[in-house]
Amino acid sequence: MTTRSNRKILAPFVSLLIAFIIGGVVIALIGKNPVEAYVAIFRGAFTDWGFTLFQATSLIFSALAVAIAFHCGLFNIGANGQLMMGALAAAYVSLRFAGLPGVILLPTVVFAAICVGALWGFVPGALKATRGTNEVVVTIMMNYIAISVVSYALTYSMKDPASWIAQSAMLPESLWLPSITLGADPMIVVAVIMSVLSYVFLWRTRMGYELRAVGFNQMASSYAGIKVRRAIALTMCISGAIAALSYYNYLFAYQYRAVSDVIVGTNVGFDAITAALLARNNPLLVIVSSLFLAALYSGGLTAQFELGVPSSFYLFLEGVIIFSVVMFSTVLGGKDD
Amino acid sequence: MIEFRNICKRFGSTPANDGVSFSIKDGEIHAVVGENGAGKTTLMSILYGLCRQDSGAILIDGREARIHSPRDAIAMGIGMVQQHFALVKRFTVAENIILGQEGVRFCINRRRANERIAGLSRSFGLSVSPEARIEDLSVGEQQRVELLKVLYRGADMIILDEPTAVLTPQEIEALYATMERMRESGKTIIFITHKLREVFRVADTITVMRNGRSVATVAAEDLTPQRLGELIIGRELPASAERGCEPGCGDALVLENLVVSGHRGDRALRGLSLSLRENEVLGIAGVEGNGQRELVEVLCGLRKPESGTVLLFGRDVTREPPWLLRSEGMAHIPEERRNGMVTEFTVCENLVLGYQTDFSRAGVLRLNSIRERALELVKEYDIRPEDINAGMGDLSGGNQQKVVVARELMKDPRILIANQPTRGLDIGATAFVHQKLLERKRSVLLISSDLDEILELSDRIAVIFEGRIVREFRRDEVTLEALGLAMMGGDDHAVE
């Protein structure tokens, strides 16, 4: 038993190692020096660690959303859509009520984002609970709907008339987040707190217990009197609500506007799946895996700048990581029977 | 001849096999008996190549056999029917049997396979249609398919891991006959069980295992049940369960004219009426598949009846959800163990499953009181390993069952639906669970395919046949013959 759990802990590291080896081979194939490239990535990640933290912040929220859904046996591929809708709601409410003092406006904006995100999670959750619809399919579709809603809103109704591109007006200054250091903002603290709360929720609360029971064994859960359908719908709500906070820092600490192309073009909700997988859905480890992926991402930009390694290399590496994590967690972790 | 020489196998720090040595002669039915966790299944898994021993050797016909996988075992003529069947539900019987067989490449010669299967069916008395789909078969029939699979592969040493645990009395008799026929045709049968009666009914030789060791290997005729029981548990047998109280006259549970459709869309219950009195143990006897499963599901709120009513202490709860019934003081030991537990959870977490609300304050789990209660229960029910943080999946079946029983009785429910409560339990544990069921004042609806259990515990026995209660007996008036007859539907003294 001890060896098995040791192996489980080891699995992500082995898979990362293998992903890096495969990535190195690919870098060599495009005619660059893999060692130099990795050194550049590493250096980039640390010289620009404010950007790394900034990226990690978004990632943590979405990864928590994915991880919590996983615990209930649900694969939330819709974190991307949920975060887009959350961002849109936050931008809309902050502009609509811009006159309110910051202390009232801030909670209102956060609440609006959470509610819209929860709704975006609730739809696939409720469909799964009542109709047995596959949540993977529905969340993917909800992503497309979110893309359309966001680009419509920012191209027409919410567009800043003075601007040439599809973006909102400047968001109220009362909500702008102070930068702690080098571009990192207080949202990283909120993200860490959210991770701890998620951990407590899953392992210390009744609802978390029920949600995990449903995730492992629906039959036994319903025999035990757990309201399985409610648990499924609720989990997706919670998941969507957390994902909805992912882009808060983009809005209020980076661009101070809702920019259609940036929001619609985000990939954070999908990177979050990798982060959750690497963390084996443990909310505390999500902090580590998100930091890691963010470092890889910002380092990748440096590598592109310095060596001409294409930035899409990051996407490639991420794909290989997912692949090897999935493969090696089954190979090394063994079957759970 | 199969010889085990000093087999040792550890899982983590607990030894499952701790120096097992005995031998099995060709052409005999060799029973391996012992309590849960005695190491029987581990030993057989080693023989079948599902896991490897840490030390020791297996000799087959005097030569050391290196069995690294079931493939090796099959090549040596060893076959195994496990407790949990490995059948593809949507495939037919024949498709399942030839699945993964040597010689099947691209084309499957269905006709030839069917003929061979039919031939095997005939010669071993395993009647099952090759064209039937697995999902339409009863558990007993599925087991026959597993047996046919083993025979089809030409095994001549056949391991049966607690084969009777899932069978009705009639099916058990048929299985015995099959085993005897297999022996006549020269096959060796290794038969894992912990039911004393069975051992004496079919076994030639008995090996007793206790705490991972082989304690004795004896010819069946040289043993008495009493002596065997003592060998198994290593001390004297516990006395049979005693009633805590006499039945009252109020009704705890009344079912009126229940009509329920079953899993296959047909009528499973066709106007079933029944009443369970306060503090009474009512045994439901019947051949499996006569509506017991649906009856329990309706009682637990998992299946909605088409018509009829369920009254719980006078209150109509016919279409109420499971959690409400539970809060009304109804507990349920499910037939299928996996429906009563979450394998991935710890023992501790499983011991509060369904009672998590009672163990939380303002939505937060009270971990200390959960742990405290879990420690008590683990001790009281002698659940092994004695570790509340052990993964449920690492426990033996019997210990898992103890966890389920311990949990369901924890809150002292007013009504207990006990569906096969001692399935898979050994003698000591069965007696213990029986004692637990009876020691407090409560009404128990006992559904069991083990007639001995029904006869021992019930104040009253109701016989279910084709979705109706066809006969009721008082404890003092029942005879095995009348009971058996009623179970087959051959009785015209139907209850109005």
Show the helix and strand layout.
The complex is a heterodimer of chains A (337) and B (496).
Chain A: H1 2-29, H2 34-47, H3 49-71, H4 79-96, H5 102-131, H6 135-155, H7 187-204, H8 206-216, H9 218-223, H10 228-243, H11 248-255, H12 260-264, H13 268-278, H14 283-307, H15 312-333
Chain B: E1 2-11, E2 14-24, E3 29-34, H1 40-47, E4 55-60, E5 63-64, H2 70-75, E6 78-81, H3 93-98, H4 110-124, H5 139-152, E7 157-161, H6 169-184, E8 188-193, H7 196-202, E9 205-210, E10 213-219, H8 225-233, E11 251-261, E12 267-277, E13 281-285, H9 292-299, E14 307-312, E15 315-316, H10 322-327, E16 330-333, H11 347-350, E17 360-361, E18 364-365, H12 367-380, H13 397-410, E19 415-419, H14 427-439, E20 443-447, H15 451-457, E21 460-465, E22 468-474, H16 480-487
Parallel strand pairs in B: 3-8, 3-9, 6-7, 7-8, 13-20, 13-21, 16-19, 19-20
Antiparallel strand pairs in B: 1-2, 1-4, 4-5, 9-10, 11-12, 11-14, 14-15, 17-18, 21-22
Task: Summarize this structure briefly.
Chain A is mainly alpha-helical. Chain A has helices spanning 2-29, 34-47, 49-71, 79-96, 102-131, 135-155, 187-204, 206-216, 218-223, 228-243, 248-255, 260-264, 268-278, 283-307, 312-333.
